[in-house]
Amino acid sequence: MNWAPLSEDGLRQAIADACDRMSPRQRSLWQAVEINPAKWSQSPYGDNGGGFWAVGIIGRVVVWYNDIEEGFERSLYTSHGSIGEYTCSQFELEHVVDQLLSLIETGQLIGDVCGAPEPIPHPPAR
User: Fold this and answer.
1) In the chain, where are the structural domains located?
2) Which pTM was predicted?
């Protein structure tokens, strides 16, 4: 994989741009869940870049930036500092915040997420 991790300054700019697009309701929730950006591990996809930027936490859900796919994601985690599931949905931050609003209102995470690539099954050799 040939990619360079997003700088913290670039990440902060992406978050600021998203905040400018957020509704007041979205911004209120975002201000409650945002954290100072911190690199969280995710193996194997995050290994080459020293992890991915975690930017928000609510309950057992971490909001993070996938700089391989260039989008914000949300994943469950069981250990602080480690992203449990790789996703590559390429959401804008405000879309992830909408998913979190739904989680609060309904208790369910809504919206499909795209997972890690899976190997293509090959037919058995003859």
Assistant:
1) 8-106
2) 0.85
